[in-house]
Amino acid sequence: MPRLNPRSLLFNTLLNLLVPGLGHLFWREAMFGIFIFLVMLLASVLFIVSLLIQVPLEAKLAMYGLPFLFYAFTFFDLARTVKAKRKNTAPRTRSAIIFLVAGLGYQTLSPVAPLNFALRNRPEVFVLDSNSLNPLYSKGDILKASRLSYLVDVFVVKKPILHALPRRYEIVRFSAGSDRHMNGIVVGLPGEEIEIVGGVVVANGLPDIGDAPGGIVLSGDWPLTSADSYSISVATVNLGRIDRVHEVPLRKLVGKVSKLF
Fold first, then answer.
1. Residue 169 near residue 144, CB atoms below 8 Å
2. Is 71 among the domain residues?
3. Same domain, residue pair 80 and 141
4. 70-99 burial, b for 16+ CB within 10 Å, e for fewer?
5. Using an 8 Å Cβ cutoff, are 185 and 237 in contact?
6. CATH code, domain carrying 170
7. Residue partners of 41: CB distance under 8 A and separation at least 6
8. Per-residue pLDDT tens for 199-258?
9. What is the number of other CB atoms lying within 10 angstroms of the CB of residue 3?
10. pLDDT tens digits for 5-48?
């Protein structure tokens, strides 16, 4: 088992990855370490704010780009600090373990930490149990439903935030009951009236000559139906033939379906 080396650049880089500024704190550069942490904390808060309100692209580039450049700089500064101080300073292994555990705890428990955010917004991984989505996906394929494609769970809001709408003909996974999830093709957007005639989607009286993904060819008919302003219409299919069109509330979207690998 490799021994923990508190003086190594790799260990200190890991600390800075776990908590911005933690590597500098470890080498007793407390003021700069706290400053780094506060800057990245502010960047995390601005990221959450940008999900709640419309922010121009230029503002987003500044909000994300400048903190990222500053954070990248801190790694170079940390490397300089380690090289300058490790000859005359001998951090204890016990202290290194405490800092490492604190960093792991922050990533796991803090609602603004990337790992905690990723765990709350992780995709659903599942094995396709039929050939209904052939030729795009086959029975036994390992797929994922990416929640972040449409929804994001942030700690300041009780319910997931919808930040993007599915597009027509995207394959989505949705909740059809307490423990039942289904896959289907988006055929209608919020507020649309749709019908399907010979596999062609007619939305608000106009045919949409779009193509389903991966060579799936829609066939079959479905009578005029509609979705309210907070729902979409999703067709479940069997080898392209439409079985049923479901009105799916946006809150019941599990995610956008794609292959895991």
1. no
2. yes
3. no
4. ebeebbeebeebbeeebeeeebeeeebeeb
5. yes
6. 2.10.109
7. 112
8. 999 999 999 988 788 888 899 999 999 999 999 999 999 988 999 999 999 999 999 999
9. 5
10. 888 999 999 999 999 999 999 999 999 999 999 999 998 888 87
